[in-house]
Amino acid sequence: MSPPAPHLVDKILEEIFVCLPTPAALARASTACPRFRRIITDRSFLRRYRKRHPPPLLGFADKDGFHPAEAPHPSAPLARAFADAADFTYSFVPKPNNETWRPCDVRDGRVLLEGSPSWKIPRNLAVCDPLFRRYVLLPPIPKDLASQEKLPFQIKPMLVPIGEDEDIGRDEDETSFKVLCFADYGIELELVAFVFCSVSQKWCIAASASWNSLGGHPCRYRLARFSGCRGVSCFNYVRGCFYSASAWVDKLLVLDTRKMLFSTISNCTGYHAELRWLPGQVENVIANRVMPQRRRPGQRRSLPAIVVGRGGVLEMLSLVGNHSPDGSFDLHHTARENNSECSKEWQLENVIPLPSQYDYFTVGAADGFLFLGATTEDQLDIGEDSSEFLSMTDWDVDYFSLELQTSELRRVCRRTRRFFDSEYVCWYFGFPPSLSKPSI
User: Fold this and answer.
1) What is the secondary structure of 96-114 as a DSSP string?
2) DSSP state of 46
3) Measured between alpha carbons, how far is 42 from 340 in angstroms, rounded to an integer?
């Protein structure tokens, strides 16, 4: 009997490897022999494996570097190895005009960097791979696209995820990327989405709309910002759309990346009409025009976060609680059918109690996870009448992840830092260094 053809053996091995439960197991298999490594490091195989086994949470990046998951988190060994191998000082990326790079988004193993000052248009942006130390410097937004006569009220650059229904079959396609830059020119003007495509190496205006056409109300918008809402600076991605829960108190701002259209979804129907009056909700604070008496890290930026839901369903986790001593916190899990005219009601799915002894705030959402920050109650409590400055106080902040599918809460890591009311955290999902391929 003649031996099977080599390509059939490769196919059988590929089917075995794709069933390995963890990236660590796949990494060990790749070291067994050159043939195994060739199959495992092939781009088409890695795409299959990533689709079947979502990449693990490794930690988060901010302006001070990379903070890996810590034991007993299951990703701790992998995260530590990744942190040792990668360069999160971004020393390999040239610094235009001696600016300091800071991460503003992370997706698909890539980090989007922005230079200071953050309000400037045109601004300096770069996309890099900190593991393989590769980078692309983005050209500035052309003057004929970005108005030089009026400065934007806010700017938010973000990486666009690869579409879930895209069939990427060419290596050169896998190295491509897109960057969205949201520019908010104020409540009486407009919101613009600029898009950069690495294939064309050009910027264009992908979408624009006036706040008034989207149903904005200037007085409530300003009150929302005063109480902690961050305008267009906090977006979450859900199946082809970016959602922001912070532009208004009664609507979600939506950008559909497939149609490149802005729209809104009511955030004040069904259970959400009742939710808005519960303790700690921004809506309740605005309605009563009473700021919380306790001042804690991140308290003013704690907002509901959109997370990836089930097919045809949009889901939200809202943090409910108070910042008084011995106060309790819960996450209210709500859902509604996707963006359609016939489905307008938010329904309560369940209430998830959070462990006591912590004062919580939300820090974002990605890939089916909600991320929380928390300070322990035994730390310094600063009252409104205290002479102590929050910005000069060190806090031990514990970061937690909550997986939407299982409602499992896990501590990711702890960080000691100064008050960070205006800082953003970028969560990093990835593969072990031996399996990563250059993305840029």
Assistant:
1) GGGPPPEEEEEETTEEEEE
2) H
3) 40
Q: Which of 164, 172, 176 is CA-nearest to residue 51?
A: 164
Asked whether the beta carbons of 360 and 382 are under 8 A apart, the reply is: no
Burial class of residue 334, CB neighbours in 10 A (0-12, 13-18, 19+): buried
Using a 10 angstrom Cβ sphere, with 0-12 exposed, 13-18 middle and 19 or more buried, the burial of residue 119 is exposed
State the DSSP string of 302-351: ---EEE--STTEEEEEEEEE--STT--EEEEEEEEESS-TT----EEEEE
* C-beta separation of 192 from 182 below 8 A: yes
Task: Check the CA dihedral 433-435-439-440 and report its sign.
Answer: positive
DSSP string across 214-228: GT--HHHHHHHHHTT
**Contact (CB, 8 A) for 137 and 123:** no
User: How many other CB atoms are there within 10 angstroms of residue 147's CB atom?
Assistant: 15
Which residues have CB under 8 Å from 319's CB, separation 6+? 280, 302, 304, 329, 330, 331, 360, 361, 362, 372
The residue count of the chain comes to 440
Residue 401 burial by CB count (10 A; 0-12/13-18/19+): exposed, middle or buried? buried
Segments of the chain with pLDDT less than 50:
164-172, 218-228, 292, 341-342, 432-439
Check if the beta carbon of residue 371 is closer than 8 Å to that of residue 362: yes
How confident is the model over 22-51, as pLDDT tens digits?
Answer: 777 887 888 888 888 888 878 788 778 877
Chain centre distance of CA 267: 20
Alpha carbon distances (Å) from 346 to 220, 259, 274, 307, 317: 22, 25, 10, 14, 12
- Tell me which residue of 107, 212, 88, 95 sits closest to 160, measured CA to CA: 107
Give per-residue pLDDT as tens, 234-271.
778 887 888 887 656 678 888 998 888 998 888 888 88
Q: Give the single-character DSSP code of 375.
A: E
Place of tokens 């059918």: 337
CA–CA gap between residue 396 and residue 122 (Å, rounded):
37
Provide the greatest CA pair distance for the chain. 88
Q: What are phi and psi of 150, to 5 degrees?
A: -135, 135
- The helix/strand/coil state of 288 is helix
Helices (H), 175-217: none
Q: What are the backbone angles phi and psi of residue 272, rounded to the nearest 5°?
A: -65, -25
